[in-house]
From TrEMBL:
GO terms for molecular function: transferase activity. Keywords: Transferase. InterPro entries: Nucleotide-diphossugar_trans. Transmembrane segments: none annotated. This is Glycosyl transferase, family 2. The lineage of its organism: Bacteria, Pseudomonadati, Pseudomonadota, Betaproteobacteria, Neisseriales.
Length: 255
């Protein structure tokens, strides 16, 4: 399996260039730092042959089979535009990163009204889902995505108005308009999840700015696509869970 490695360096110096050359990685120095999504776009639109590319945060670790698992599934399912693995903390506990498309109250309560968020997150974070089945998800985390390059280019990549935060929410929506966005539990990665915007005021402001940009783009309280996609996803996930339960029960009766 051929792998093209691109490094977009947003730091003020070119210290990483020598290391990239050692690993035959294409190096781009971009000290203006246009943001998470815009930097990814620089690499993806330089790609030539690979039909799948990976978006991976630097605090992600995984074993040697993970990429081949994801690529193999996407090769077998050409209708899949984006595939994401199960994500766990370094201690192995689950990170609930499969979500419904957010409403304004979902996002702002999580930061400023934790008691309300706790109730809303039951559905928003799909806490009743066992993360043990292949299902379509409305909103997947950008910490690790396998994305079909053709579709990514077709939609124009990340929306570069989002410097950081919510760019993966926006990308999930647009990818789903041209293919399936799928959670694949057989592949597992570890993620050191820090929630920096809860600790850093500058990042908090960046998060709020992105939330405002997101809802200005898609709609605040009147977003028919959000309502439709969320209802459809919940219905399909619950149906898949019920079928699995029935199949397991039937197997127990036959043994």
């Amino acid at each position: 399996m051929a792998v093209d490695l691109f490094v977009i360096d947003n730091s003020p110096t070119t210290e990483l260039q020598g290391l990239c050359e050692e690993f035959n990685a294409s190096y781009f120095h971009n000290p203006q730092n246009p943001g998470f999504g815009a930097s990814h776009n620089l690499a993806v639109f330089e790609l030539t042959e690979p039909n799948i590319h990976l978006i991976i945060n630097p605090d992600i670790t995984f074993d040697g089979n993970t990429i081949s698992q994801l690529v193999g599934f996407m090769n077998d399912h050409p209708e899949v535009a984006c595939l994401v693995p199960k994500v766990v903390y370094p201690d192995g506990s689950l990170q609930r990163l499969c979500k419904l498309l957010p409403s304004p109250i979902n996002l702002f309560s999580r930061r400023f009204a934790s008691a309300l968020a706790e109730r809303l997150d039951e559905d928003y974070e799909l806490r009743w889902f066992g993360y043990d089945q292949i299902v379509d998800i409305p909103y997947v985390s950008g910490c690790f995505m396998a994305v079909r390059t053709e579709v990514f280019r077709k939609i124009g990549g990340f929306d570069q108005r989002f410097f950081m935060y919510l760019e993966d929410t926006d990308l999930s929506r647009r990818l789903a308009q041209h293919g399936r966005v799928v959670f694949y539990p057989d592949a597992v990665v570890k993620h050191t999840f820090a929630k920096q915007s809860y600790k850093n005021r500058r990042l908090l402001f960046a998060h709020i700015k992105s939330a405002i940009q997101y809802f200005n783009k898609w709609g605040w309280f009147f977003d028919s696509e959000r309502h439709h996609r969320n209802r459809e996803a919940v219905a399909k996930i619950r149906a898949a869970m019920l079928k699995t339960k029935q199949d397991n029960h039937s197997t127990e009766l036959n043994t």
